[in-house]
TrEMBL record:
The gene is TGFBI. This is Transforming growth factor-beta-induced protein ig-h3. Residues 103-236, 240-371, 375-498, 502-632 form the FAS1 domain. It comes from Balaenoptera musculus. SMART domains: FAS1. PANTHER family: PERIOSTIN-RELATED (PTHR10900), TRANSFORMING GROWTH FACTOR-BETA-INDUCED PROTEIN IG-H3 (PTHR10900:SF82). InterPro entries: Adhesion/Biosynth-related, EMI_domain, FAS1_dom_sf, FAS1_domain, TGFBI/POSTN. Its main location: secreted.
């Protein structure tokens, strides 16, 4: 019976299979980084960890894969050293760190891990050393010797001058009355300290860095008989105020204080949560032009967007940033938060003047420059930061600036500066009308545009949207950069000046003397009505010179045969609108004749059937015209391809004759002509 009792659990485990086996808990980011450091140090012996040290400092980091290959921390070069992993020590004459550290009480463990100053101050108090040596289970976040040495002299003096109150309270705030290992230190959690049950803020970041009130965990999980010791790089102090309360008491936040009150965000900033406030100082607000600042402060929606752009969705301590990070704000934009040496950067700028001011609901970093989101900007302000300054100057010179700075909902189609490398057009009535047709009567977003959509301009024109595989175009002009959505207007950066359509394809051809022979041919072939009616056509239009380059006999023969003429002309017309910006490497465009045209683009040169297009994108209401200098021949009219078709027909006949011979098994010999044909086919 006893044997059965032992075998039954085994039988059940086998029957249930692997799914019944409990999964091992996932490793924390800190543990994964420590594991990577072990892997990098294993060639030096057991329990050896690779450590990156920033050159010229005492800062050391366990290394993750990215840092290992970059060999940089906050842009500063590092050197690799090899040390015993936490919890292990060297043995004379042995390779690596084969021995576990001796297990002793908390007080003695402080000395073992090198926190001798914390041990010394513990000894000075009357009550704490007996606790650390006695029974119980505790966690101490022990400041390193360097952390104590870096305290301002007046702070340290106030602690050591009153060891049984101030120093004791400070040390108790670093302690928790239970054992807490790193796998339990979760991002955003609060631990109750042994000083008046005050909270300690814990953040455990994806890059493996753990902070305690924004102090970095240097070495963790040093076990003791009555608890665990974690070594940290700062002396931490109690947190009593929330973010809103800190704004209220800081003199440098006078303008921010008024802005928060006007926006109603004070409720958020005094509530629960863990945020990072990139708090603009008075100086930051003063750097903004008064007109811009007054406009935003007087617009509740723009003001709220402005302030939300300074609030990150989670608490981010400075010590957690060892390389560039993309962090999302409450406004929805992404900020690039990085570091350069000891300085934090926002979008590459070292604008943080004071960091890691802790609050009960997050952390504050003081910044000396306002972070205005696109959603709070006018079109003028959006354009000032984009590659469209030349176009915006034209709008201003044409007296259209009020459209770009007012509250009118519109979308600006602004050609990029390179479009005007050969100069800008003179400001006259024609140019002003053209500019009006670069403003759409609605605030659009490119992700909602669809093929065939009609957009109305302030100039009264209707523009079409064309969606291609790799391009999004409005008439002949394609969007060249991500759109910027402002308070009232959206900016589309375009790759060329837009030309609204004027008249049908036939109107375009008739109005250009270069196409008089083409127009006459279209009329002779009876295609005028087709190219005048509503539709979507791409016309590759041969010039008069192209027709005149044909052999005289061929041109006369073509003009005298209406059916053949219509066939060739239809081969010049595609059955959809293809502007040059939508071509890409190669597009096969079906013609009205039935065969396909091969249209390609390379180095800004468009070719059709390998023939160069001399002018692109003459827009019409029912299509687009591209100018070519030769008459295109359909495949059936090309000599080589006619020969190929004859050869294919002959080969089919030969195959049928061979099949017939085999099927009848007669002694009929294949005609010599077929035999000769076979030989020719083989070659």
């Amino acid at each position: 019976m006893a044997l059965l009792g032992r075998l039954l659990p085994l039988a059940l485990a086998l029957a249930l299979g692997p799914a019944a086996t409990p999964a091992s808990p996932a490793k924390s980011p800190y543990q994964l980084v420590l594991q990577h450091s072990r892997l990098r140090g294993r060639q030096h012996g057991p329990n050896v960890c690779a450590v990156q040290k920033v050159i010229g400092t005492n800062k050391k980091y366990f290394t993750n894969c990215k840092q290992w290959y970059q060999r940089k921390i906050c842009g500063k070069s590092t050197v690799i050293s090899y040390e015993c992993c936490p919890g292990y020590e060297k043995v004379p004459g042995e390779k690596g760190c084969p021995a576990a550290l001796p297990l002793s009480n908390l007080y003695e463990t402080l000395g073992v891990v090198g926190a001798t100053t914390t041990q010394l101050y513990t000894d000075r108090t009357e009550k704490l050393r007996p606790e650390m040596e006695g029974p119980g289970s505790f966690t101490i976040f022990a400041p390193s010797n360097e952390a104590w040495a870096s305290l301002p002299a007046e702070v340290l003096d106030s602690l050591v001058s009153n060891v049984n109150i101030e120093l004791l309270n400070a040390l108790r705030y670093h302690m928790v009355d239970r054992r807490v290992l790193t796998d339990e230190l979760k991002h955003g959690m609060a631990l109750t300290s042994m000083y008046q049950n005050s909270n300690i803020q814990i953040h455990h970041y994806p890059n493996g860095i753990v902070t305690v009130n924004c102090a970095r965990l240097l070495k963790a999980d040093h076990h003791a008989t009555n608890g665990v010791v974690h070594l940290i790089d700062k002396v931490i102090s109690t947190i009593s105020n929330n973010i809103q309360q800190i704004i209220e008491i800081e003199d440098t936040f006078e303008t921010l204080r008024a802005a928060v009150a006007a926006s109603g965000l004070n409720t958020l900033l005094e509530g629960d949560g863990q945020y990072t406030l990139l708090a603009p100082t008075n100086e930051a607000f003063e750097k903004i032009p008064a007109e811009t600042l007054n406009r935003i402060l007087g617009d509740p929606e723009a003001l709220r967007d402005l302030l939300n752009n300074h609030i990150l969705k989670s608490a981010m301590c400075a010590e957690a940033i060892v390389a560039g990070l993309s962090l999302e704000t409450l406004e929805g934009t992404t900020l690039e938060v990085g570091c350069s040496g000891d300085m934090l950067t926002i979008n590459g700028k070292p604008i943080i003047s004071n960091k890691d001011v802790l609050a009960t609901n997050g952390v504050i970093h003081f910044i000396d420059e306002l972070l205005i989101p696109d959603s709070a900007k006018t079109l003028f302000e959006l354009a000032a930061e984009s590659d469209v300054s030349t176009a915006v100057d034209l709008f201003r010179q044409a007296g259209l600036g009020t459209h770009l700075s007012g509250t009118e909902r519109l979308t600006l189609l602004a050609p990029m500066n390179s479009v005007f490398k050969d100069g800008t057009p003179p400001i006259d009535a024609r140019t002003k009308n053209l500019l009006l047709n670069h403003m759409i009567k609605d605030q659009l977003a490119s992700k909602y545009l669809y093929h065939g959509q009609i957009l109305e301009t302030l100039g009264g024109k209707k523009l079409r949207v064309f969606v291609y595989r790799n391009s999004l175009c409005i008439e002949n002009s394609c969007i060249a950069a991500h759109d910027k959505r402002g308070r009232y207007g959206t900016l589309f950066t375009m790759d060329r000046v837009l030309t609204p359509p004027v008249g049908t394809v036939m109107d375009v051809l008739k109005g250009d003397s270069r196409f008089s022979m083409l127009v006459a041919a279209i009329q002779s072939a009876g295609l005028t009505e087709a190219l005048n009616r509503e539709g979507v056509y791409t016309v590759f239009a041969p010039t008069n010179e192209a027709f005149q380059a044909l052999p005289p006999g061929e041109l006369n023969k073509l003009l005298g045969n209406a059916k053949e003429l219509a066939n060739i002309l239809k081969y010049h017309v595609g059955d959809e609108i293809l502007v040059s910006g939508g071509i890409g490497a190669l597009v096969r465009l079906k013609s009205l004749q039935g065969d396909k045209l091969e249209v390609s683009s390379k180095n800004n040169v468009v070719n059709v059937n390998k023939e160069p297009v001399t002018e692109v994108d003459i827009m019409a209401t029912n299509g687009v015209v591209h100018v070519i200098s030769s008459v295109l021949q359909p495949p059936a009219n090309r000599p080589q391809e006619r020969g190929d078709e004859l050869a294919d027909s002959a080969l089919d006949i030969f195959k049928q004759a061979s099949a017939f011979s085999r099927a009848t098994q007669s002694s009929v010999k294949l005609a010599p002509v077929y035999q000769r044909l076979l030989e020719r086919m083989k070659h």
